Amino acid sequence: MEESTPRPASPDPRLGDGNSFDPRVWLLALGTFAVGTDSFVVSGILNQVARDLSVDLDAAGHIVSSYSITYALSAPVLAVLTARIRKDRLVVATLAGFSVANALCALAPTYSVLLAARLAAGIAAGLYSPTAYSLAVSLAPAHRKASALSAVALGITGSVLAGVPLGILVSQHFGWHASFWLVGALSLIAFSALSLRPPRALPVASSVPMALSARFAPLFRGRTLLALLPSVLMAAGISATYTYLGALLRERGFSTSAVAGWYVLVGLGGVTGTLSGGRLIDRFGAVTMLVLFFVVGIVDTSLFTASLAFPAALVVTCFLLHATMANSILGQQRRLIALAPAHTEVVLALNNSCLYAGIAVGASVGGAILSYGYALGAIPYASSVLFAGALSALGASVGIEQGTGRRVRAGAAISTAPERA
Predict the structure, then answer these.
(1) For the whole model, what pTM was predicted?
(2) CA distance linking residue 187 with residue 163, whole number of Å
């Protein structure tokens, strides 16, 4: 009788061939594409919404800020409350709710109803995106987890490149309501794809549920809060200008089709930043590159209004607007992981919330500038001030961390020094 030899265990198909991640991660990117389109498309239809619902442009800007602040506040709390629900089921259910919320936006007869529907959409988005990132990580081998995260993130940057211009063109022919129908349709496509081929997360060995107090522990540390502050101010700097980009372009006489083209250029900047930022940060370090990104942001936004009169210059400022944000997000993520390696998931979730809080702050700053009677062209200058604040906060945070590191090293040297007779 032949002696049977044991066969090596076959790799889990969810981890691909060991050199790649589960291809169903790209289905999760369909969902972030819908979420990203919903986050940014309002900028391009703000004038239509304000005119149709008989509200001022600054009031229409609250449609952006309400969505973003709801996302920022709900995401960490919902992550805790849904921690025991299977992530593959959660992303599918959340996309269904997100689609319904956008249908309500499309059907909204008044400004108040639209605002309420945007709050609902913000809650659904605040639950979907962090869950999708977490699920993507579980579907990749250790050396490919960053690539899986980038794949899901490309859904967001890709939405600025393709989803937002498409939404603007749709609104041109069918009205602003159609833009929300488009987002609802994109959500349903992602919902259908994930329902047919659900990505099932791998079981985590010896996983211990994190207590609520432990999950939010970084929030009670001043150093962590200071390290997160650049994310808020940077995102606010981008958002203030981006929220009113469509209005700025239309004020200068650009047609709707031309405006959509400029949004494509902004999206190209974001995709380029997402693809190149990681390599730059790996080579030169997070702090060095963050300083560079924030300085570029200051210069770019301070020149933005003037560039509106020169198409060649506007190409550069529009491209850099979103490229700066994409690169800065990657730099902040890398730095926060290094500062709190034991709380990686928590600080990344908090950073995501800070980004959306910054988007809400930026939209509100732009609205406040208009409400005080200033021209649209004043908004990018406010963005440059916010970028300067991000650079200052980064400098303060780095200074504190370096000072703390020196004290720790000095204490360790004293404790290990041989005792003198």
Answers:
(1) 0.73
(2) 12
